[in-house]
Amino acid sequence: xERTAVGVHFDSVHLxxxxxxxxxxxFPLDWFPVLQAATAPEREHxxxxxxxxxxxxxxxDMDVNVPALLSYRPxxxxx
Length: 79
What we know:
The chain is α+β, with helices and mostly antiparallel strands.
């Protein structure tokens, strides 16, 4: 089974993409200026699409395409 996004959490400088298998994948929060400027409650209110390929934050009108985001990770190149 392919790893899919099942959640998101943050620290002060990272977005962590929680995956169905394996550890969370981290990304610099400054890659996402809208999320970086959002409040903690706005960041915590998100939805994941049924196919697990989109994450959407309705209060700040922000969405992230999971496969595109994962393609930017050097560890995933060639896998």
